[in-house]
Design goal:
With about 525 residues, the protein is α+β, with helices and mostly antiparallel strands. The chain has three domains: about 70 residues, 2-Layer Sandwich (Alpha-Beta Plaits), CATH 3.30.70; about 230 residues, 3-Layer(bba) Sandwich (FAD/NAD(P)-binding domain), CATH 3.50.50.60; about 190 residues, no CATH class. It has twelve helices and 23 strands. The strands form six sheets. A seven-stranded mixed β-sheet has the order 14-15-18-13-21-19-20. Helix 2 runs parallel beside helix 5 and helix 2 runs parallel beside helix 12. The longest helix has 18 residues. The protein is globular and about 70 Å long. This is FAD-dependent protein C-terminal domain-containing protein. Pfam families: FAD-depend_C (PF21688).
Length: about 525
């Protein structure tokens, strides 16, 4: 039976072979007694800038278990049974809309039960999509159906590929193992802050598609869900591209947070949709070297990973918050529009995180009071308003409005330096937002400086606008994960308002797949 040992520390640059004598000392056995060793968790403790440590949790086995005395950080691991998936036979068709994390992991989970489905993706396969996105960044030529938001892999394909999640879920390990199975680096299984990187994530997405195809799934690209057939309060079929109709009993709706036309179609069809608060703001870009020195101290060890940060600010008087979001160390700021005439920015990193820049969203919360309407899609229109203002301020061609951080705060001037392509136009960014949003962003940035000395810097540039932080709507569902208005409709993932990143969306897709399996009359794990 294996053991778990927490809080082992090494210095940056140390060989991990040094863990073995530390384990032997803690377990009070000779090193020769250790028969297996694997990493469970690896993180950086940077609380003391002059004494940064790498902190490990390890799992190990020994020849003579009775010699090991447990206690404190050393515990015995109880064996856990692997999940079992009974083979099921569907009564009627299953359709999955969207090939982001929620849709892909719903499909992978259904395959565990021996089920298959038709998958509809409005965009293109990831390789074609990558070429379309590269052309957009180079020339400013937007394809509304193949871009950073739409296409195989979802919006997370062009991101840092973060796999952190605030929710504890027994399927977290399952998701990570599946990602490794399809090409993700094995270190995501134990990294404290796992990420894949946009470059490797694209290969993972391709591998998942190939697995689903081999399992009998019909995958249809450039296939937009244009209608839902409803009969007696239940899903009866779908319409594709405005002309093709197919019956289905189970509709997994995972369209992503930018499927505005899909929201409008569902609302017109009578599906329940409601407003949801979200956040809007800017991207801030610093030299990565500066962030490293703020977080690690002067002359940080070269073996340390590019430094990250996560910051929050709350104004109790106004009830508004500002926070950093989707921080991309060693990354770039990218054009992320999906509609003509609007500028949207996002962040992206490769696996190696080797860009000289660090960027993060700096956003402020917004809700009904900002939207000016109780209409379900008022948040969508609020996003569009900001994106069109940004397009105008950028002077066209999907150039982004930008401003030196000091200038935005009224504390001086500085140069504009940014990785954003197709380019930036100097602008007064506060004019893009309602006054209360701009005020909250400024308050937040000043507060961030109190916790990260040097954050306010003449070397920092702000780029706008960041509007696609999360879905502006939620499709209400019950405990059985079906739409409250229509049986057989399973809203899932970010686009339905139930996730906030790759990992949480994948986990939600799995929950929906398990619910469908349960509805077929079988017990699920």
């Amino acid at each position: 039976m294996p053991f778990l040992l927490r809080n082992l520390t090494l210095n940056p640059g140390d060989e991990e072979a040094l863990l073995r004598p530390l384990i032997a000392r803690a377990a009070r056995v000779p090193e020769s007694e250790i028969t297996s060793l694997s990493l469970v968790r690896k993180g950086v403790d940077a609380r003391k800038k002059g004494r940064i440590k790498l902190v490990y949790t390890v799992q190990f086995s020994v020849k003579h278990e009775q010699k090991v005395k447990t206690g404190g950080d050393l515990t015995r691991l109880e064996p856990q049974a692997a999940p079992r998936f009974p083979r099921l036979s569907p009564r009627a068709g299953i359709v999955i809309v969207g090939m982001g994390p929620a849709g892909l992991f719903a499909a992978l989970r259904l395959a565990e039960y021996g089920l298959s489905a038709t998958i509809l993706e409005r965009g293109r396969p990831v390789d074609e999509r990558s070429r379309d996105v590269a052309r957009f960044w180079r020339l400013g030529e937007l394809d509304p159906e193949s871009n950073v938001q739409f296409g195989e892999g979802g919006a997370g394909t062009f991101s840092d590929g973060k796999l952190t999640c605030r929710v504890k879920d027994p399927n977290t390990r399952y998701v990570l193992e599946q990602l490794v199975r399809f090409g993700a680096p094995e270190e995501i299984l134990y990294a404290a802050k796992p990420h894949i990187g946009t470059d490797r994530l694209r290969a993972v997405v391709r591998g998942i598609r190939e697995r689903l195809g081999a399992a009998g799934f019909e995958i249809r690209f450039e296939s937009l869900l244009s209608g839902v057939a409803l009969r007696k309060g239940r899903v009866a079929g779908v319409q594709v591209n405005g002309r093709e109709e197919s019956p289905c009993e189970f509709l997994v709706l995972a369209p992503g947070h930018s499927a505005r036309d899909t929201y409008a179609m569902l609302l017109e069809a009578g599906v329940g949709i409601e407003q949801k608060p979200f956040a809007v703001g800017l991207r801030v870009e610093h030299p990565q070297k500066l962030i490293d020195e703020i977080q690690y101290g002067r002359n940080p060890h070269p073996a340390l990973p590019p430094a990250e940060y996560a910051l929050t600010y709350n104004n109790r008087a106004t009830g508004r918050s500002a926070y950093s979001f989707c921080m991309c160390p060693g990354g770039v700021v990218v054009a992320a529009a999906s509609e003509p005439g609007g500028v949207v920015v996002n962040g992206m990193s490769g696996y190696r995180r080797n860009s000289p820049y660090a960027n993060s969203a700096l956003v402020a919360t917004v809700g009904r009071a900002d939207f000016g309407s109780a209409e379900p899609l008022a948040g969508v229109e609020f996003q569009r308003l900001l994106e069109r203002r940004a397009f105008a301020a950028g002077a066209g061609g999907y150039r982004a409005p930008a401003q030196n951080l000091l200038a935005f705060l009224g504390q001086g001037t500085g140069a504009l330096t940014s990785s954003y392509r197709p380019g930036c136009t100097e602008s007064e960014l506060a004019e893009l937002f309602p006054a209360q949003v701009s005020a909250t962003l400024r308050e937040g940035i000043r507060d961030f400086e109190n916790r990260m000395r040097g954050f306010i810097s003449a070397e920092a540039t702000l780029i706008g606008v960041e509007t696609r932080t999360s879905s502006p709507v939620r499709i209400p569902r019950g405990d059985d994960l079906q739409s409250l208005s229509h049986r057989g409709l399973y809203p899932t993932g970010e686009g339905a308002g139930y996730a906030g990143g790759i990992m949480s969306a994948a986990l939600d897709g799995i929950r929906v797949a398990d619910a469908i399996a349960a509805s077929l009359g079988q017990e699920v794990p």
